[in-house]
């Protein structure tokens, strides 16, 4: 018997391979480089690897291929989203690498030490943070790059685990508030594995459907081409298809934090170290939506009449839950978490428009939101007092008097979240809602606009608190950011402004990329 | 497809269910009931139950590390078996891919070794 070996286009896989290789090197650095020099080595290695991956993505820009035996599709959306993930991960890595804001950085040195023990207090006071965060981050990023490129459900599942497992670990590594951090990691891990199980079960049912659809004698499959043919042509019972798609969607909706699968979001966003929260809010969202877009557009588009009402209802619920619960929050990280839930709803509105317009506007929204949210969490890392970050909202009162620059930047970012014109928040919402209107989904647009109005209230409340209250005893100071945080902040704020004032180049890029290979 | 091959299985299920229900019910009616301390203790395969550890059951982290390492290398071996069986069919391509895989696992091995994961004390 001769096995047919798969064709592998290594150039098309280069971005993933570069990052995976770099993370392995990162592990070796942990093993062989003396502790003192690890931080710098890892940071340089990480930024170099991300730059290399970005170059590889740009070099692949014209690729439209399916490779690795049909498991990986490198096409317009893949490359656009891979580029977005790499750039956003670069910003996140700058926040992660910051060590001048607090001694030793935002990460704990030895995560296994008992919380509150003398050893724990000693290492919190004078040890540098664990440098394992860099290889873990790179592992996560390479998994995300594979996730948006996966062209069958099995590869997608592997990629899902490959980027989720490092994230679970990263959540547990906060230097301050260790118990909160560990709790968040455990919650994320348990709920995440539960959601993965749903995804797997859905995959099994969809496989069963394709076997039934092919008639007797032909094998089924979980690659998107087979599923697509089965969905369009099959006269077989659709029970398996709908049950499978529903379970698959639960797995994906968990990752994008759509209601009612969002319950982990506020706790995890609050407990995780703030740079990791930013990384999750930006990169995980891009990756998870990339996967969802491919599943809906490529594999299941033949069933769009059936799933659009259900996913549309979930989008409305997500927007409502995110907006209404954001109003009641008293912690800035939880507020941003609920805002991220609401944004998942707006993105779902775009994802449900199965046209070129819908795809390009959703991809644009993802990029714009990623820049803004990373910059926002960047500001959160700077507002501190002796106990670390001051995240309670009441503490932010009067910040405008104490530090007009950072309060100003944060105001700008909040206005972008609220979708005020001249920010990227406006252009991206406009694009997504426009695409949804063209597709005749006006009910989703109405819900989107109404919840945006609700959501503007918590944002503006923070703005009012920062500027119109007197700074009190408890108003924290804003630490002077190191070069890395400053750079990440600047990139985020400038991108938010540029994408609001002159969005045309990126919109054109997204338009040109908005076609899946099938 | 006819159901006939499944009839014996259904019969077996019925028999098993009947036996379980019968045994439980019969023990209730026929058995003597004499309580003593041993009967109230947790059942640990007939040996004396091990006492609960003091302070919430903390145990040295090295057991956990050993278990982790076992999983890493166990999975490597599981992956090696099918490759070894079909080595002649996979040829050079399969060999190179497997070497790459082993290199990746050995990176983990090097990390564990340098960080002292292999020292018991």
Q: What's the short version?
A:
The complex is a heterodimer of chains A (518) and B (121). By secondary structure, chain A is mainly alpha-helical.
List the defining traits of the structure above.
heterodimer, A: 518 residues, mainly alpha, two-stranded antiparallel ribbon, 3% strand, B: 121 residues
Morphology of chain B: flat
The Cα radius of gyration of chain A reads 22 Å
The computed structural class of chain A is mainly alpha
Q: What is the helix fraction of residues of chain B, given as a range?
A: 55-70%
According to CATH, the fold-level topology of the domain at 57-121 in chain B is Methane Monooxygenase Hydroxylase, Chain G, domain 1
Gap between N and C termini of chain B, in Å? 62 Å
Average per-residue pLDDT of chain A, rounded, comes to 87
The total number of structural domains of chain A is 1
The number of helices of chain B is: 4
The proportion of residues in beta strands of chain A is under 5%
- SSE topology string of chain A: HHEEHHHHHHHHHHHHEEHHHHEHH
State the low-pLDDT regions of chain B, or none.
none
Helix and strand element order of chain B: HHHH
Instruction: List low-pLDDT spans of chain A.
Output: none
By DSSP, the count of extended strands of chain A is: 5
Q: Helix tally of chain A?
A: 20
Task: Give the averaged pLDDT of chain B, no decimals.
Answer: 83
